[in-house]
Amino acid sequence: QVQLVESGGGLVQAGGSLRLSCVVPGGILSNYRMGWFRQAPGKEREFVAGIRWSDGDTAYADSVKGRFTISRENNAKNTVALQMNSLKPEDTAVYYCGAAAGLPLALMKRGKSDYWGQGTQVTVSS
Fold first, then answer.
1. Nearest residue to 35 (alpha-carbon basis) of 24, 55, 49
2. How far apart are CA 94 and CA 80, in angstroms?
3. What residues does 38 pair with on adjacent strands?
4. What percent of the chain has pLDDT over 70?
5. Which tens digits make up the pLDDT trace of 44-77?
6. What are the b/e assignments for 36-66, b being 16+ CB within 10 Å?
7. Paired residues of 98 in beta bridges
8. Cα(123)–Cα(119) distance, integer angstroms
9. In terms of DSSP bridges, do strands 46-52 and 58-60 run parallel, antiparallel, or are they unpaired?
10. Are 40 and 93 in contact (CB under 8 A)?
11. Which residues, in sequence order, are bridge partners of residue 84?
């Protein structure tokens, strides 16, 4: 079992920024793909961004491209971050960190992951 601990959510005005962090206490192995997902009220959980841990290759949902950045932190030992800029009210959701060993990007984009964090609320006011 892999534990994921998220932090960094909160309330921000439209146009503002937030930074989310996800710590994996046991460390992140190189064969993992890490991702950020979100679920707004009444909607399905959706893919936001993903990163292949071995080489840092990234992918983003079209809705966040150019505004959000996923990155490896702490010398790529155990932390993945999501920098969110130019936030919009439609970005309001519970954000989840996910981890999966060897998961193809296509499956992660469909919302798949082996392990999930507890979620952190992001609220963007207009």
1. 49
2. 17
3. 46, 95
4. 100
5. 999 999 999 999 999 999 999 999 999 999 888 8
6. bbbeeeeeebebbbbbbbeeeeebbbeebee
7. 35, 116
8. 13
9. antiparallel
10. yes
11. 18, 68
Can you read off the two tokens belonging to residue 54? 């071995």
Q: Is the dihedral of CA 99, 104, 105, 111 positive or negative?
A: negative
**Number of C-beta neighbours around residue 24 at 10 A:** 21
Report the DSSP beta bridge partners of residue 47. Answer: 37
The pLDDT of residue 75 is 84
**What local confidence, expressed as pLDDT, does residue 74 receive?**
85
DSSP secondary structure, 36-83, as one string: EEEE-TTS--EEEEEEETTT--EEE-TTTTTTEEEEEEGGGSSEEEEE
Coil, strand or helix: which one is 45? Answer: coil
As a whole number of angstroms, the distance between CA 118 and CA 5 comes to 7
pLDDT at 1 over 90: no
Of 118, 51, 115, 107, the C-alpha closest to 79 is: 51
Rounded to the nearest 5°, which phi and psi values hold at 74? 55, 50
